[in-house]
Records
---
Amino acid sequence: MSRWLLTGGAGYIGSHVARDLLASGREVVVLDDLSTGIRERVPVDAELVVASVLDTDAVRRALDGVSGVVHLAAKKAVGESVEQPLLYYRENVGGMTSLLQAMDDVGTACMVYSSSAAVYGEPAWSPISEDSPLQPLSPYGETKVIGEWMVRDVAVARPLSWVSLRYFNVAGAGAINLGDPSVNNLIPMVFRALDRGESPQIFGTDYPTLDGSCIRDYIHVSDLSAAHVAAADLVEREVVGVALNVGTGVGASVIEVMDAVSEVVGRDVGAVAVGRRAGDPPELVAQVMRAQETLGWSARRSLTEMVSSAYAAR
Ligand code: WQD
């Protein structure tokens, strides 16, 4: 049985990955500073170390007996990163430096890294291939690109097998107690509006898309989590170094998401069109062939399952 370190394992995505790593037969050590993570979300079968990835000594100790690391711990709000770029460089780039240093010190040779479609910025083409230029539009996206470069560079200098997973729009919940507690993204924002008796807003209906609203590639957090286990299997099995899109390969417009919510809640949510939000590309959809071929993984869950599970877990 192998033992894995999961940074950020008390968070929204991490709490799913922790369960799936355990279910794959691995021992799991979660390292989380609980700044946004929730202690109760760490499965009882996992060990919890309450520490920041910036604490290299604590990471080094947590790596004892560990064969690989899934690194999720990071700041992830695009708008906040524009306001506080140094916070993002300190936490995300500093966190990666500290983690890779600790891994180097103790000789940990496997890494699965949480990257983002934000590395592409506003791509010229959609669906987006992994070979598209990396042109992030925010400090958040920049720190994700730098993290990918750091892992790649370290792997040139010493033995390290790695996969970077570029997440598209993550949604849904694998259980009613594992919903996304932040209200940064479309689906949680729609539910918050409904809870307050307000109308959900569609940010722009004049985009060059079929219905005029923006198109995104929404992926169920349980499918995303399964991709981490497949990536952990791969880096343990062979020496690789690859960045993979993690999406469904199918886009949904904001209006289609509103329709899915209306279907789930059993009434028209009465979404209203408002102006565009600055910086939103019209369409971001993943090319998913490389993940399918490399990991033998693909997303299975529908938009309706994302919306209904998010609704049940809100
Ligand atoms: C989705 C679509 C909005 C709210 C961001 C980050 C990305 C990643 C995921 C990090 C857009 C529209 C939204 C609302 C709306 N983050 N919208 N009404 O912007 O695609 O991606 O989150 O790890 O890096 O950039 O996601 O959920 O904010 O928006 O119409 O009330 O919904 O304009 O088209 P986005 P989102």
---
Amino acid sequence: MNSISKISKNSTYLQIIWNDGEESKFNYMWLRDNCPTAHDKDSRHRMFNILEVSKDINPKKYSLNDDGKLEIEWSEGEHTSYYDPKWLRENCYTIKNKQKYKSPYQFWDNNLKNNFESICIDHDEVIDSDEGLIKWLELLHHKGIAIVKNSPTEKKSGFKILHRISHVRETFFKTPFEVINIPKPNNSAYTAHALRNHMDLPWFELPPGYQFLHCLVNDANGGDSSAIDGFAVADYLRQNEKDIFETLVSVPLKFRDKDYTQESHRSYHAPAISLTKDKDFHDIRFSVATMDALDCHPDQMDKVYKAHHRFGNLLHDDRFQIKFRLGPGDIFSFNNRRVLHGRTAFDPNSGHRHLQGYYLDRDEILGRLEYLKKYKL
Ligand code: OGA
Ligand code: ZN
């Protein structure tokens, strides 16, 4: 464990030199705001309000006390704070900001097909062990895709394994949604037609983070599945076709739900590719079926369509895409805002086909994984 070797006061921050030579700067307002007494011990919410002190607050006295804590007597509010060096080191934003960002995403292309078992996990392993659950969540987070094998095939039985993670994300399609060929379909998924690679519900402000397609029966001819890593394709464009990438990142497209059963008009503008604060990939918005009549500036329309055309072609390119067939008891699980999915047409007269679909928010996958890695590994 690191200890503090030297402390010195500057105009707006304390500088700390650690025993391993690392240096930290801790801003006074930040320190006051993060005094360990600032939080309620039960709710863990901050009860202290930084607005109650002036922006000029600073240490009247500071020292490393006999308990090894950084002790600060503040210039106002008659308050003394005691900081554990371990906490300061773990939360040091000087060190954090020096570290190079490492992406959690492992891109894949059609080579994944040669290694398909690596993304498969047994249903009961997830139900019976935290290790199994962690493995599933890690596949979902890092690769964006996993196939749960040997699940039961009773209707709604997907709830049990999903509740190992968290509650589901509800939509008007209900949970589970029934992916089955129906008369007068309100969605092209509910036909026997082929579905080009797409994401679900891109017209939401926040489309579901993850999707789970639980195969109950797949006896019809056709109806084979496809999947493609949209982040890998976006990364290819970032490396090789910068102008196209720039257009896809910067120009908002328009998506709209046209479901005739709805007494609601839902639509949303978002670029095809969006990035995080670290310039990593955040999400992909791509769905030929539900992209609305675009309304970008006329000077941009040609450039936007050409970029969309290129992106769409790559999103169906066999160099990137994997093809497989779901069998009863498989749960095709994937990051809905990264991995696009599709299926070939099927012949409804040749046999029955029935999938049940569920959504979960991304927060639930990430939050559960973080928790389990900390407390169960
Ligand atoms: C869907 C979908 C794929 C399939 O329901 O969103 O894409 O294999 N289904 O039927
Ligand atoms: Zn879909």
